[in-house]
């Protein structure tokens, strides 16, 4: 089966945490995108944002799974923690900026 008997509980907990993260992340993404996008292209922007969200989520999971064979399970978790801390730092940095100052932002209609 590929699952060690002692790893069942951590794997179930990991799947539950990933499911919770996706169920919180996707509605947040829709909320932000709909607030920032111009009305004429809101559907297109939401589609691209969803594509990026789901593609990056699945690709990063696969990369992390492959990385654990090189650096071990603990090393993979450390890499995951560093990526999460980087995302949190970026989010906190963006909270201190004025709205509309990021490069490439569109004015709302």
Brief synopsis:
By secondary structure, this protein is mainly alpha-helical.
The N- and C-terminal alpha carbons lie at a distance of 54 Å
The residue fraction in helices comes out at: over 70%
Low-confidence regions: none
Elements, N to C (H/E): HH
Binned strand content: under 5%
* Number of helical stretches of at least 4 residues: 2
- The shape is elongated
Q: What is the number of E strands? A: 0
Structural class estimated from helices and strands: mainly alpha
Radius of gyration (Å): 18 Å
Largest sheet properties: none
What's the overall average pLDDT, rounded? Answer: 78
Polypeptide structure, described:
The mean pLDDT is 78. The chain is elongated. 76% of the residues lie in helices and 0% in strands. The chain contains two helices and no strands. α1 packs across α2. It is mostly helical.
Please give the structural blueprint.
Elements: H1 8-36, H2 42-95
Question: Which terms would index this structure?
Answer:
109 residues; mainly alpha; elongated
């Amino acid at each position: 089966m590929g699952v060690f008997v002692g790893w069942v509980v951590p794997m179930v907990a990991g799947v539950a945490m990933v499911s919770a993260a996706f169920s919180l992340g996707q509605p947040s993404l829709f909320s932000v995108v709909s607030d920032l996008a111009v009305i004429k292209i809101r559907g297109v922007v939401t589609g691209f944002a969803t594509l990026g969200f789901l593609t990056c989520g699945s690709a990063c999971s696969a990369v992390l799974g492959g990385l654990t064979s090189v650096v071990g399970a603990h090393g993979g978790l450390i890499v995951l923690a560093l990526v999460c801390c980087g995302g949190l730092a970026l989010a906190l940095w963006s909270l201190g900026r004025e709205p509309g100052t990021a490069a490439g932002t569109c004015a709302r209609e």
